[in-house]
Structures are given as structure tokens and as C-alpha cells.
Amino acid sequence: MTYRKETECVQGGWQPGDAQPRQVPIYQNTTWRYATSEHMGRLFDLQESGYFYTRLQNPTNDAVADKIRQLEGGAAAMLTSSGQAANFFALFNICEAGSHIVASSAIYGGTYNLIAVTMAKMGIESTFVSPSCTKEELEAAFRPNTRAVFGETIANPALAVLDIELFAQVAHEHGVPLVVDNTFPTPVNCRPLEWGANIVTHSTTKYMDGHGAAVGGAIVDGGTFDWMAHASKFPGLCTPDESYHGVVYAQDFGNEGAFITKATAQLMRDFGSIPSPQNAFILNLGLESLHVRMAQHCKNGEAVAQYLASHPKVSWVRYCGLPSDPYYALAQKYLPNGGCGVVSFGVAGGRAAAEKVMGGLKMASIATHVADARTCCLHPASSTHRQMSDAELEAAGVAPDLIRLSCGIEAAEDIIADIDQALALL
Ligand SMILES: *Cc1c(COP(=O)(O)O)cnc(C)c1O
């Protein structure tokens, strides 16, 4: 039986049998006992599925991953210990030394660093394109060794909306998959797989957990990319894995199972970025109310953006739900029910004025966190980017007066009243 998203948020993943726990149990164990070593050997050879060691798989994690898979409409999914691990695994599962990635330049700073600096040290090159590039500009970024295209549905913190259909079309014309980080809208507001993306990633630390309680990540594979049709590009999926007795993932597990089986069997085994089952349980509690919370985050984001847009001391506002926003048209297409609760804005008076407003906020807390039930805000120029001059900030696409406000699920009137009294200090 297939359910609507709201029902899947609550009911998905864990289906208890007769006299079993109603809530997903926390399997807080590292290992499983088997009666014979032959049985365990079959598990090690991937001939039979089953649990033996939590670094590879754990039933609590798998139940929660399956809920996220259902929400995204994917074929297979896995949890990781963080969003960083999810994006690294999603890309490194396809790329190797000598490969090349095309990525949107409007992405999370940590992911930019991962691709541009750390993966470069592994011999994986990258080219960054503007999220609003034309088809021709996007095509010009491809090289014969390009193996993946990467972008964020709504970029953190730039709030640019990705033209998923365009990026998917160009990726597919070049025989490579599109990987989309869907952290900000969550599957409640957008399902990138339906627009042609092949693999979706998440920092579940944000809205999915939603309570600032557990760092985590997820990867969902749509099962739609035909690896064997492009076998020469993806030897890791299409030729025997000698570290797993010659398994050929794309052949033995098909388009639907190859990607996640390889990421589990190779990358989890070798890098070990598994979440604790306790954290997966906490994530699941967040998922149970995700649809209710996202609606309130969007309602508050919209109200705050409208308030800011009409305030005389506010010099600019970015929110893709505002008709004046450069990404409004794309948001109407991909996010008809709303995007997220994150708004960015600048104040007259630049960096110093922004610091004054931040200092004046009473309810909104200053935090590096975002996408939380509690309203929080960040002024990059005086915190995460404080070593940079105004000129360096502009070059990095971060205005010196930029305040990133993540609207929580409190009453919109109270969030606005807090900003109002802080702006009155200017
Ligand atoms: C926070 C974030 C990440 C990194 O996730 P962690 O859980 O902090 O490792 C990746 N992508 C986006 C869009 C994010 O907002």
C-alpha cells in the first residue's frame, strides 16, 4: 500500500509484526550471533542479506533510512553519521582518482570545501558553475572524465533554487547521474527524483531532525541510472570488486540496488561513518512531525520575508517565495507548497549595522545551526567568515551585511516583533 507523504512521515519505515514494539526499537548492539560460520560466510559474501556488525548495517538505522527512501520516492537508501559523510559517499561511490565533478557554485560551504579541496587531494577534479547558468554554460563545464553533477535544491546559505530538470537533462546527455542535496526543502516540499535527479542526499541534522539534537545524513538512490549502459565510465559499479569476491554491483544488484549496496559494502566498511542507532531513533522522532513543522517553517519564512521587504532599514531580502526574488519562477515550479524557513537579508549601514541588529535580538539565538524548531540567526561576516575583509566577502558571494535568519516554528508575530525591536536600534 502506498501512502501520502504525511502518512509516510508518521507510519513509514518500521512496520511491527504481531506483539512487536510499536516504536522502532533501538538495536544498541555492535554485533550479531550466528549458529554456524557457514551462515555468517554467506552474509560476508553478500549472497544473503542479514546483520553482523553495526559499522555496515543496523536494523534501527535501516528502518529510518527506509522511511526517508519512501518520502523521496527512491529505490534504496542508507543513513550516514553526518550530511558531510552523505555527500562524500554519494560522490566517491561514483568517482575515483582521475574523475571530474561538475557542481553548482551555490552550495553549502562544507560541501564546497569537500569537493574543491579535499576531493582534489584524492585526484578528483571539479568545475563550478553558476546555479543560474544557461544550458550552454553548463555543457561547457563537462570534460571526458566528468562522472557526476552536483547541486542543492535550495542552496545554503545563498538560497538559490536549482533548475533540477535542466541539470538532469545535461547530466544525462553526458551519460552521468545528477546528485542533489535536498536538505532545505526536504521531500515534504520537493522530490528531486521526480524531476530527473538520480541520487538525493541530506543533512538530516537540519529540518529532518529539526530539534538540534542529532547530527546525521542520508543518501537515497532513485534506481534510475543505467550504470551498465555507461560501463566504461563507472568501473567501480560495473567491473568485479575483488575486495568482495568479484561482485559486480550493477549486474548482481541491478540499477535499483547497485549504488546503495556498493556504498554500504565498500565505503561504510572502509570509512565507517555509520550513525549510532540512538541518533537514528532521535531522527525518526523528528521525521514523525516533519510535514507539520515544514508547513509552519514556510508560513513563518513567508511572513518574515514580507515584513523585511517593506522595512525602511532593510536594504535587501532573499526568499524564493517572494515574487521579487530572482528564483521566484523556479520556486513556483519546484516548490509550489513552499521552500523552507530560511530568509537572508541585509541592513542599511553594512557590517557594523548587521552586528548591532544581531546583538539586539532577544528570542532568535545566534547559532551556527540552521533549520531548527527554534528561530536562530547567523551573521557570517562577524562569525564563520570573520577573518575576511569586505572585499573578500563580496568575492565569496557573502555580503558583509548578510544576516541569515532561520525561522523556527514559533508564532510569526513573535519572530517579527523580535526583529522589529532589534532593527529599531539602528
Ligand atoms: C549542514 C549541511 C550539510 C552538512 O551536514 P552536516 O550534517 O552538518 O554534516 C550539507 N549540505 C547542506 C545543504 C547543509 O545545510
TrEMBL record:
What this protein needs as a cofactor is: pyridoxal 5'-phosphate
Span of the signal peptide: none
Query: Its family?
Result: Belongs to the trans-sulfuration enzymes family.
- Please indicate if the UniProt record lists Zinc as a keyword: no
Q: What is this protein called?
A: O-acetylhomoserine (Thiol)-lyase
- Residue positions where N6-(pyridoxal phosphate)lysine is found in the record: 206
Keywords in alphabetical order: Lyase, Pyridoxal phosphate, Transferase
